[in-house]
Amino acid sequence: MIIKKYVVNSMNEAMTRIRYELGNDAVIISQRKIRKKGIKGIFSKKAIEVTAAIDDKNKNNNFNNIDISDSIEAIKKAMNLEKKPLTKVIQEKNIDNGKKSNESVKNSDYLINEMKEMKNILSNIASTGISSNGKSDLHEKLEGLDLNSEIVEDIISRIRLDKREVDENEKIKEALNCVVSVTKPKNEKIIVLVGPTGVGKTTTIAKLAGRLSLIEKKKVGLITVDTYRIGAVEQLKTYADIMNIPFDVVFSIKDMEKTIENMKNCDVILVDTTGRSSKNVMQISELRAFVEKTNSKDIHLVISASTKNSDIKTIVEGYRVLNYNSLIITKLDETSTYGSLINIINYAQKPLSYVTTGQNVPDDIRCLNCDEVTNLVMGVETVC
After folding, report:
1. Could you give the CA distance from residue 191 to residue 164 in angstroms, rounded to a whole number?
2. How far apart (Å, rounded) are the C-alpha atoms in residues 168 and 343?
3. What does the pLDDT look like over 133-161, one tens digit per residue?
4. Structural domains of the chain, ranges and CATH numbers in brackets
């Protein structure tokens, strides 16, 4: 087994050097970002440290179709061989040759450190395994949970630092718990829901109204500024009539303060807003003016669990100017994997307040704790 380490500026450079020196059968067994030392510790440059390996038989014979599993097996066998400690071998060699120069001692220390680092790399490979596409089994397992690449790398780093002899799934769960954030209801007077079109804001606000008025027995008022969507006002008014709670429509920014003042006797006022594209700066600015007039300290960004990873970041960043402080993730009943919950929390850097799991008002809304979110993501339990 031949193992070499390369410090390069890019993966393209690494691949070129690896193929030139080790051949096309070489396997990348680790890579990490480092900084090259600069002058007196400054002006350091980012670099990539890549470790590659190849079976020395393949190197000599130039076989082209080696199975990666053969290389991994060779690594495992190499780790299990009982050999003399490197320090002892070096000492014996020095005695035989009668050379104990400072240079040999320095070389010995360097080799010892290199071997220790290589042993750690080989241990990681043996424990996680490598699939035919060059990814570890752990990496593929986490990707299968629909987690984005940043979270996958974060979880893998946490697990590799965890040296306890416990089940890998338990390590995954604990690592996921570290990146999950949830919050309990804040009991604020004014609650505002914002978010893109089609995520279920109006139905969600009706569920919250039902939960607060029918279950918690609070006096609730409903306000909507969504006069753009056909049927939105009628839909929310129907819910308000069924629950026998006050309802009003705000058509302009100047009417917001007056409408809230008219509902001052309510324990809680729920405000439904117009769905806007997070990429339309003008529409978001208009919505911001409405939200600021509410003086709310409890603003929830509503986003669907089925939102594509590529769109999540755009949405959470586009709505950040509205100063939302928590998340409501809807439509969990419309997806079979729940990695998006953690992706949304991670991108927004805000806690999860509620999830919705269906169309039933007011039943299909609930709060989750960290363990429940993690169990959902790992497929241990479902919510619908």
Report:
1. 44
2. 21
3. 445 677 888 888 888 888 888 888 888 77
4. 2-134 (no CATH), 190-378 (3.40.50.300)
Query: Which alpha helices (H) appear in the chain, and where do they start and end?
Result: 11-22, 56-61, 68-80, 86-97, 102-128, 137-143, 149-161, 168-179, 201-210, 232-243, 254-262, 281-294, 309-318, 339-348, 370-378
Distance CA 57, CA 72 (A): 14
d(CA 226, CA 241): 18
CA atoms within 13 A on the CB side of 262: 13
Structure tokens at 186: 């804040």
CA proximity to 316, closest of 339, 347, 281, 341:
347
What pTM was computed for the model?
0.66
Cβ-based neighbours of 181, under 8 Å, separated by 6 or more: 345, 350, 351, 352, 370
**Vertex 348: Cα angle to 345 and 354 (nearest 5):** 50
Give pLDDT tens digits for 233-255: 888 999 999 999 999 999 988 89
Q: What is the DSSP letter of 39?
A: B
User: Cα torsion at 197, 200, 202, 204 (round to 10°)?
Assistant: -150
- What secondary structure does DSSP assign to 332-371, as a single string? GGG-S--HHHHHHHHHHT--EEEEE-SS-TTTSEE---HH
For residue 375, the tally of other CB atoms under 10 A from its CB is 18
Report the greatest alpha carbon distance in the chain: 98
Question: What kind and span of H or E run contains 49?
Answer: strand 45-54
